Hints:
The chain is an alpha+beta fold.
Amino acid sequence: MPRLSTVVNRMKWCILGACLTLLACHILFVVMDRLAWNHPGSRLVFIRGGAHDVTRCRRSKTFNSLETLAETKWRLMNIRDIKSATINTAVEDPDVKPIGCGVSFSADIEQVTRMGDCVTSRVSVKSVFSNLSHYQGESHLREIKTHYLDRVLDTGLTVPSSLVVLPFSSLTGKHAQDIKQAVDCDISDKTLFKKGVTVYVASWVPNLGAFPKMTPSLADRIHPDNFFTYVTFLYIANCMKSGHSHFATSDILHYVMIDNDRCLLPEKVSTIEMPLHYRKRLTKINSILFRDGHVCSVPPYLISHMQTANSPSSLTPSIGSQFRKMVAVNVISSLVLQEDPEIYEETDGRVATLVAEYNYRCNARDVSNYDGQVSKSFRESRIVDYDFIDEKQERIAVELEGGLTGVATVVRPSVGTTIPQPALAKLFAYYVDRLTGINRMPTVVYRLLHLDIPELENTHNLTENKTQGMTDDFMWKSHGRQFGNGGATHPKQVSPNLGSKKLNVVLVGKMKDFHGNVSIHHEGNLRDFFRHEASFEHLEKMNYSRQTLLDMADIFLLDFLVHRPDRKIFVKSELRLVSTGEAEAWWTHTNQSVCSAILRCPPVLYNTVWSHRHYRCNQTCGDGVSTYLSNCRFRASTVQRIRNIQKEGSTLEDMVQMMIKNEKGLPSILKGLGARVKYLMSYVDMCEREYGRDILL
């Protein structure tokens, strides 16, 4: 039997262990509680310990932007005009309750500036949660994203605003319970933050009133000065605003964007079944912008910005990439990015469509201007560094003044009589890519390259860290200004026997944020989609975005038009698929202008081995592959642009030939394009008869 002292000691240790366990549980509870409060990425500074944290500051009438609200101490006062959100996004079932909740109200906000001053201003506050796959879905997170896109485009349409977490503990008075109840639903993020919800806080705008409903006829009548800026933004942001949601200041008649919780709709929402008057909210913006040449009224600064960002070879990130980056620095970025992650590449898709239409209607069909300042820089900028990277094929890696980089290939205009040289094949394919509005190739120009400038005599030795990461097609990856072939060897330092230091070259721009060999999964399901045996929704479940499928459709069409039969992989620049490898284009035998197999069964999907024997051209789909209308998905804007060219009495081949003639010394050896366009249009008609308008995406 143990001694009494031993029992006492054991009891002491048990009590001590229990105390330590309780202490550990308490610490764990505090840590978990704070983790729930401080959402990943959050740097929010809230009012803690009562109102004295704010009231001790010095009163001031100085201005303090709401943009920094999440980084300062603040409190809401004088809450008024509380309205519960009325959202009906349930399925059409009388037994299913409407899904969603939310609240909006006005208030005064008092902020503490970094200088210790107190600044009071009037604000509008909104917090809305609903089923966002429904056409009536609303979200206050879309409000802040609309504000960020406005900043990226520099359109100046939205008001200063922030996204913050509103602690329930900071709500006092009779309105506190009303607000808490208004955001009490299963999909509210109160389940995430426990002690509060996210809210969108925006500056109140005086002298603001509803403006007449947005209609196509308004473009030709008296309207606010920023009308076309406003319409352009509504299109880029895919806004489905109701007729009473357009506002303008009464003093200077200037559009101001508020109530933007139905902007940045994913394309999947705008394509579902919905009442006609809802769909018209989207289609009327297209009608205003793309009819009667109104696209030419888009402000020049905005067009220039979009042209530059849209080029895969510019130094400026795409609009979608800039937009996503701005969202990512938000203090609650992970929450915002999680909502509708596809909108960033879809934004880039709409920018590309608008730029293509502007170029076609307003740029005199001169491809040399289609990429704006990017084209001009590649064509005219002075070379500041160069190195020879392929002596046999006479390829030269160059760096231009201003930072643009590319690969120049020497052109011998007198060489070749039936098919273009590889460098010219890229140039001619680029003309087709831009004239059709596909816009998936890097910038390509024909220019004179001067290598006899004195200051360059001793510089043609680019360091190895600039000469790595190049693909077989000499498209560069994004990490630095880098050339080379995988970094295996140093580039050649010996100049080939070019015969001159003033060279005619085709210069292909470096792709920004380039990703080679993008993995393709579920090829069978992709094939099913393009032959109408699978839907968008089916492919989305396999992580294929709608924009990716649109880009695939455009690339298949481009391959057919330029007779590029051997695409084996997909590649990507920033958020979207791009096209490379056009050096192998235009392999058209004189007796074979149309190879329908490239269109009917794209080799990259069917893994077919291509034969350059022209008589086997239409046998390349492989044994057992049904080729009847097996690829019947096309981007609507691309097909419509080709049809418009024909309706206006021109042809795509004539337009390309005109571009070739404008470049002095280039041989006009383009063959078969007209026949392929004719076949394409008849094939599209066959698809429409079989599947209806569903073929146009």
